[in-house]
Amino acid sequence: MSFQPVLPQSGYSGWVFLKRTMERQQAVQKSLPVQQRDEAYFRDRIGKADTAEKLVSDKRLLRIALTAFGLEGDVNSKAFIQKVLEGGTLKEGSLANKLANKQYQKFAAAFGYGDFPVPRTRISTFPDEILSQYHTRSFEKDIGAQNNTYRLALNAEREIPDLAGKPTSEKAKWYSLLGNPPLREMMQTALGLPKSFAAIDIDQQVSTIQAKTEAAFGSSGLVQFRDPAKLDALIRRFILRSEMQDQAAALSPAAAALSLLRR
């Protein structure tokens, strides 16, 4: 039995409903047999996966691990994942540090295969750490199957305050955000930037997005979104703009012609 989120409305009113009922819905999903079996499997096997090779050779274990970081789409890229893990993150030139998607960096750092003689998988609290993230991401994935806007909003609500609090420059934070596909999509939509925006020079992207953010929220820095009120304003703006885009797409000539053909 798969989890079917209750989403009776769309748009911002649907988001408010989701937030109000989310704790109960997450509890229902976590109690499902498939989630319970994955949790038991991970707890039983992860301590024995003391090398990156052992982790990637167990597809179920790898799927759970990758899902915890939103990387489940790469579950079949075993050689690539093994290389990312074995390189670690403590060396500046490691693969995880070079990749634009910084979720790989978080993934490699969490497991510690390339950084320590004994990986973090042997720590007693490690299963709880990863499974907490796994359940959160699994819930977001199921929400996204019905409404991807809400999945992106949930991800941003969790990830942006963490990124905003990093002890790096504001410009570095923006580079990190642009290197995170879900956060990039959310922010571009919220600021009314087209998909083609990603094709321009990266430095120009940062300066443009900073200017747009300052115009919309009064400051160009990501640090402002550590304020729950500012973060809520960003999420609301994203959901409303996303809904407008969907309505515009539904009213396009091509969509109208397709609707006529289906009658």
Q: What summary fits the major beta sheet?
A: none
Broad shape: globular
What is the total domain count? 2
> Do you know the CATH architecture of the largest domain?
Orthogonal Bundle
Strand content: under 5%
Compute the number of strand runs.
0
Judged by helices, strands and strand pairing, the structural class is mainly alpha
Q: Would you mind describing this structure in some detail?
A:
The protein has 263 residues and is mostly helical. The protein folds into 2 domains: 11-134, AGR C 984p-like (AGR_C_984p-like); 152-252. Helices cover 68% and strands 0% of the residues. It is built from 14 helices and no strands. Helix 5 crosses helix 7 (103-111) and helix 9 (148-164) packs antiparallel against helix 13. The longest helix is centred in the last third of the chain and has 23 residues, at 228-250. The radius of gyration is 20 Å and the shape is globular. The protein starts with 10 loop residues before the first helix and ends with a helix.
List the helices and strands and how they pair.
Elements: H1 11-31, H2 33-45, H3 52-57, H4 59-67, H5 78-87, H6 95-98, H7 103-111, H8 126-146, H9 148-164, H10 170-178, H11 181-190, H12 202-217, H13 228-250, H14 253-262
Helix pairs in contact: 2-8, 4-8, 5-7, 8-9, 9-11, 9-13, 10-12, 11-13
Give short descriptive properties of this protein:
263 residues, mainly alpha, AGR_C_984p-like, 2 domains
